[in-house]
Specification:
Distance between the termini: 59 Å
Strand content: 5-15%
Number of domains: 3
Structural class: mainly alpha
Largest sheet: 3 strands, antiparallel
Radius of gyration: 28 Å
CATH superfamily of the largest domain: Intergrase catalytic core
Helix content: 40-55%
Shape: elongated
Number of helices: 11
Number of strands: 6
Order of helices and strands: EEEHHHHHHHHEEEHHH
C-alpha cells in the first residue's frame, strides 16, 4: 500500500494516534529535540490523518518563517487585518472537518444529512475559501450570511446553514481537543419584523374533494400517495416511507402504524403513532398495497437505502399546482386535516392523527 503524506507522520501507541516529524538539519538549533512528537488525542485514523496534514502544514509555515527571519518577513505587506496568525491555527480545513463529521454522525442519517453538510460547506468555501476551522474570523461569518441572503434565500435557510456549520465545527473541535470556536455563533440575522415567514395555506374543502376525485380517476402511484395524505394528515415522508407491514387493513378499524425505519426517520419522538384509515385514504392504501411488488407501499419513492421525499414533493407539487389555490402544496393537506378535525370534532393538536 502506498504511503500518503499524512501517514508518514503518524504512529499509534496504545490505540492513540501520534504525530511525529523530524526537524530539518538546518533548523535543529532552534529546537530542543531533533524530532517533534505530539499526541493527536484520538483513536480515529480519519481524524488523526486530517490533523496530521494540518500540523505538517503549520510546521512548514513555521520553518519558512524561521528561515526568512534574518531578512525580515517579505509577506507582511500582503496580510489583511483580521487574519488569524498561523501560529494560533491547529484545526483541520473545513472540507476535512466535514468528512470527519459526516463519517462519525452520518452513518444512520438520511442522504439529506450529507447533502445539507456539503451544501453549507460549499457556501462557506465559495465565500471565504477552504481554511482551517479555527482560522475563520467574524468577518467570514458575516460575509457568508450576506452572500446567502444575496441569493434571495430566506432567513430560515441562512439559519439552517449556520446551524450545520456550527455543528460540524463544534464536533470536530471537541474530537481533536481544540479550544471552543465561536465565530459562527450569535450571528445577527435581522430583526424579527424583517423576517418573512412562508405560510402554507390549507387546501379548501372544495379543492380537496376535487383532487381526491381526480386521484380516484387517474388511479396510479403518485395519486395514491396524495390521496393517502389527504385524509390522514401524514407528512409526505411518513407516507412515502411506509412498508406493507405498516398497513393494517384487516383490523376492525384499518390503520397505519407510523414508526421509524432505517430509510426514513421520524421528525420527532412523538411522531410514532397509529393513524386511522378512512374515506379516500382507505381506498388509496388498499390500491397501493395491492399494486406493489415488494415490501414498500410506494416503491417509486422509497427503497432500502432512502426515502426520496424531495423528488416526491417536487413531482406531486407540480401536478397539484394548477388544481389547488396559489400557495397550497402537498403539506397543505396536513393543515387542512387539522382544520377539518377542529371544525368537525373539536380535536386539539394531539388528537389530530392518533388514536
Amino acid at each position: 500500500m502506498g504511503c500518503t503524506k499524512e501517514s508518514r507522520y503518524l504512529f499509534q501507541k496504545r490505540e492513540v494516534w501520534y504525530f511525529s516529524r523530524r526537524v530539518p538539519s538546518d533548523l535543529q538549533g532552534h529546537y530542543k529535540r531533533s524530532r517533534i512528537v505530539l499526541s493527536l488525542r484520538t483513536k480515529s485514523r480519519t481524524a488523526a490523518a486530517a490533523r496530521a496534514v494540518t500540523l505538517a502544514s503549520k510546521l512548514d509555515e513555521n520553518w519558512l518563517t524561521i528561515r526568512w527571519r534574518t531578512n525580515g518577513d517579505p509577506f507582511s505587506r500582503f496580510v489583511n487585518d483580521g487574519v488569524v496568525a498561523p501560529d494560533s491555527i491547529s484545526g483541520p480545513f473545513v472540507t476535512e472537518a466535514s468528512k470527519i463529521y459526516i463519517n462519525a454522525k452520518g452513518k444512520s442519517r438520511p442522504l439529506t444529512f450529507r447533502q445539507a453538510v456539503d451544501r453549507s460547506v460549499h457556501y462557506l468555501v465559495s465565500v471565504s475559501g477552504d481554511k482551517p476551522i479555527d482560522a475563520y474570523v467574524r468577518q467570514d461569518a458575516n460575509k457568508l450570511r450576506d452572500a446567502i441572503a444575496a441569493k434571495g434565500l430566506s432567513t430560515a435557510t441562512i439559519k439552517r446553514t449556520f446551524s450545520v456549520i456550527r455543528a460540524l465545527v463544534n464536533f470536530t473541535s471537541k474530537e481533536l481537543g481544540l479550544p471552543e470556536i465561536g465565530v459562527f455563533s450569535s450571528i445577527y440575522f435581522g430583526e424579527p419584523e424583517e423576517q418573512i415567514r412562508t405560510i402554507r395555506r390549507p387546501v379548501p374543502i372544495k379543492s380537496l374533494r376535487h383532487v381526491q376525485s381526480l386521484c380516484r380517476e387517474i388511479n396510479d402511484e403518485p395519486r395514491w400517495l396524495i390521496a393517502l395524505i389527504s385524509d390522514t394528515g401524514l407528512r409526505l415522508s411518513e407516507a412515502a416511507g411506509l412498508i406493507i407491514h405498516d398497513v393494517q387493513l384487516r383490523a376492525a378499524q384499518p390503520y397505519l402504524s407510523i414508526r421509524p425505519h432505517p430509510w426514513r426517520r421520524l421528525k420527532t419522538r412523538g411522531s410514532e403513532r397509529m393513524v386511522p384509515l378512512v374515506g379516500t385514504s382507505l381506498w388509496a392504501a388498499k390500491a397501493a398495497v395491492a399494486a406493489t411488488s415488494n415490501k414498500f407501499v410506494f416503491p417509486r419513492y422509497c427503497d432500502e437505502t432512502r426515502c426520496k421525499g424531495n423528488s416526491a414533493s417536487a413531482a406531486l407539487n407540480k401536478w397539484l399546482s394548477p388544481r389547488v389555490p396559489s400557495g397550497c402544496v402537498v403539506h397543505s393537506f396536513r393543515h387542512s386535516f387539522r382544520d377539518r378535525l377542529r371544525e368537525g370534532e373539536g380535536a386539539d393538536d394531539r388528537e389530530i392523527v392518533s388514536f
